[in-house]
Amino acid sequence: MKNIFGKALLMAAMAVFGLTSCSDDETVPQTEPTYNMAGFAKGADVSWLTQMEASGTKFYDKNGSEKESMSLLREMGTNSIRLRIWVNPADGWCGKDDLIAKAWRAKNLGYRLMVDFHYSDSWADPGKQPIPEAWKDHDIEAMKKAVADHTTDVLQTLKDRGIDVEWVQVGNETNTGMLWPVGQVVENDFTNFASLVTSGYDAAKAVYPDAKVVVHLSNGYDNSLFRWMFDGLTAKGAKFDTIGVSLYPEDSDWEEKTDQCLTNLKDMANRYGKEVMVCEFGMNWDSANSAAFATRLVEGCKGIDKCLGVFYWEPQCYNGWNGYTKGAFDDNGRPTSALDIYSK
Q1: Rounded to whole angstroms, how far apart are CA atoms 196 and 273?
Q2: Which of 138, 225, 250, 257 has its CA 20 to 30 A from that of 64?
């Protein structure tokens, strides 16, 4: 990952100029387009982007012209970027330096930013929440300090570079807690998980007082899961601002699960008085229903007063990158219609 920040500066410059040039006899002044980056978050998680670029992956607009990916997503109506952060990843991707590189590019394109803390050296999700190697012998008190120190270090590094952070996600898809077994919810005991969430919250607010701190679960359609988790966290006094969900339906159930998710978001907002958002969503890129799904979800979320926005998960992925097929680009690296709703 050497010189990754310097490479980011180069990519940011390429983004600003849009990979275009003017001939010497060009006399018509070129006007930089303006973009509305405020309001409802129409987001994209592009955490794989630098790794994809390093592998030689290219991106194209619908006409087949090569584009820098973040610039292209902005042209399509995206106004927010979500980036995951791992503690000490073996290959450096999604580590702190890689996060800074992508965040710097996003800042220079006017994006708003969400930082997604996994508190792991690799993937943390409903099926696994592994403790970072450097934290493996920690008890709950040491774990709370590690969470706070890591959160502070990453966010302060971003702030020192003039990068604002609007949302901080404390844990990723923490359906039964995080940092297992220390922070796992066992026999309905939310004590440790609640204290870890609060440690992350306090650290985030100390650096970015106005940032929204998000607790994020998968299966956004499962209201009983969400009530169980947030009843438990609330009873233990956990601090958080926003409830986040993931949603990945199939062709056989996308209408039902989308409607269930929207109902769940409304219930979360009303039951706990919290803001809500969709931190991840996606559907198979070649599904005939992908655009209809995105439209139903986005329009439904816009109709919920306390919903802050939505984030498509790794929409720039194509050709089965890392086995992932729920991006919003086709096998030729061009956008599908899945994100057309962002331009409306």
Answers
A1: 21
A2: 250
SS3 105: helix
166 by Cβ neighbours in 10 Å (0-12 / 13-18 / 19+) ranks as middle
Tens-digit pLDDT profile for residues 149-189: 999 999 999 999 999 999 999 999 999 999 999 999 999 99
Residues annotated as catalytic are 173, 280
Q: How does strand 59-60 pair with strand 66-67?
A: antiparallel
Tallying the residues shown for the chain, one arrives at 344
CB atoms within 10 A of CB 94: 24
Beta 212-217 vs 41-45: how paired, if at all?
unpaired
Which three-class secondary structure string do you get for 295-327? HHHHHHHHCCCCEEEEEEECCCCCCCHHHCCCC
Percent of the chain surpassing pLDDT 90: 90
Phi, psi angle pair for 294, to nearest 5° = -60, -40
Distance CA 277, CA 310 (A): 6
User: pTM higher than 0.85 for the full model?
Assistant: yes
User: Rounded CA gap, 102 and 161, in Å?
Assistant: 13
- C-alpha 16 chain-centroid distance: 23
